[in-house]
From TrEMBL:
Belongs to the universal stress protein A family. Residues 5-159 form the UspA domain. This is Nucleotide-binding universal stress protein, UspA family. The lineage of its organism: Bacteria, Pseudomonadati, Pseudomonadota, Gammaproteobacteria, Oceanospirillales. Pfam families: Usp. It comes from Halomonas saccharevitans.
């Protein structure tokens, strides 16, 4: 019995070049016919920062507005990165066709957010960056290691570019 790949979760950071990760995920989605969703996990503010904000901004509506603004800005950056990716890879855009690429931005500890979301959404595979600039110390960064440790589905780790 073979287990097909029907849904791929591509996880990207916004501070690094996400083109290699997107290219790998799109290529896998094209090859398998799988749905593709791109997720960015916004790291939660530290407890110290949250407590400082609560002390200095007692209005809970303003605090919630600030939180929503962080997520909205991250979503806008994610959309821009994806559009830039498509513009630079017309061959992948053509191969992917008119299919929809769902996009999500969630807040929390990234490794937990990614694995929980993959489980809830029924993802069959996670694609993400190694998040290390070189292979000298360890292959994967802290978030990638956390996803590998928690995940119940295969995790494809895309190495950094060697320019």
């Amino acid at each position: 019995m073979s287990h097909g790949i029907r849904r791929i979760l591509c996880c990207v950071g916004l501070k690094i070049d996400c083109n290699p990760v997107l290219a790998q995920a799109v290529g896998l989605a094209v090859a398998t016919g799988a749905e593709l969703e791109v997720l960015h996990a916004v790291k939660s503010l530290s407890d110290d920062v949250v407590n400082t904000l609560r002390v200095n901004i007692p209005d809970r509506e303003i605090l919630e507005t600030l939180r929503e603004q962080r997520l909205k800005e991250a979503s806008e950056v994610l959309d821009a990165k994806i559009e830039t990716f498509w513009a630079g890879h017309p061959e992948l855009r053509d191969a992917f066709g008119a299919r929809e690429m769902k996009r999500s931005v969630l807040e929390g500890y990234p490794a937990v957010v990614i694995t929980d979301y993959a489980h809830r959404s029924g993802s069959d595979m996670i694609v993400m960056a190694a998040n290390k600039r070189s292979f000298s110390a360890t292959y994967a960064g802290k978030i990638t290691k956390g996803v590998i440790k928690r995940s119940h589905v295969p995790v494809v780790v895309v190495p950094p570019r060697r320019d």
